[in-house]
Specification:
The chain is an all-alpha fold. It has one domain. Helix content is 64%, strand content 2%. It is built from 9 helices and 2 strands; from the N terminus they run H-H-H-H-H-H-H-E-E-H-H. Strands 1-2 form a two-stranded antiparallel sheet. Strand 1 and strand 2 form a beta hairpin. Helix 4 packs across helix 6. The longest helix is centred in the middle third of the chain and has 31 residues.
């Protein structure tokens, strides 16, 4: 069965984006800010690495992905701090760790392996899937955990809020439920680059017939 690009979401399939996803899921505003940063880094990295793929030797692919992603992640962090300081404060330390996230390295490697067009398309779709997943996760946690949406109180839910959902343990519970739903509806394949899979200790994906 052929891969469905729309559902090759590393957050739900390989947990590679779990840390920033959970960190940004306490508030819808933080979720949107993190999603914009992830999408920007994915697209910019895929574009640059896709353009330079023929100039990068095979043994330098992983270092090239590391340096490129770290550079764009640093730029995204500075832009968040300058343009959306309140969102930057919500994300805190997790805005910085985008520079060492395997989700982004895998996408950068794919751009070098697959070429500019397909690599860029995969980066956009992965970024959008990340955004949708994190937004839903944040909306559930904020609405039912804090009885608010984007920082605005939702009076109808004030007497029914579940405080557990605002805690890290509650975030893991909601994350796990959404993960089970997505994987049940859209079973897929790992999408990380081969070198990143090896670095993370993951087995290479079996090739399709």
């Amino acid at each position: 069965m052929k891969k469905k690009l729309l559902f090759l979401d590393p957050v739900t399939l390989l947990f590679l984006g779990a840390a920033p996803a959970l960190a940004a899921s306490t508030d819808v505003r933080a979720a949107l800010g993190m999603s914009a940063a992830v999408l920007g880094v994915l697209v910019c990295s895929a574009l640059l690495l896709g353009l330079l793929r023929r100039l990068i030797p095979a043994e330098a692919k992983l270092p090239a992905a590391l340096i490129t992603v770290a550079g764009f992640a640093a730029m995204a962090q500075l832009l968040l701090q300058a343009l959306l300081p309140s969102v930057y404060e919500m994300l805190g330390f997790y805005a910085a760790i985008l520079g060492v996230d395997l989700l982004l390295f895998g996408s950068g490697e794919d751009a070098m392996d697959q070429g500019l067009g397909k690599g860029l398309l995969n980066a956009v779709l992965s970024g959008l899937c990340f955004a949708v997943f994190v937004f839903v996760l944040a909306a559930i946690r904020e609405l039912f955990g804090a009885a608010s949406f984007a920082g605005n109180a939702v009076e109808a839910l004030k007497d029914y809020k579940i405080t557990l959902l605002t805690l890290p343990s509650g975030g893991l519970i909601v994350f796990s439920v959404l993960l089970a739903v997505v994987n049940a509806l859209f079973p897929g394949h790992g999408a990380a680059g081969e070198l990143t899979r090896a670095a993370a200790g993951l087995e290479p994906a079996e090739k399709e017939a």
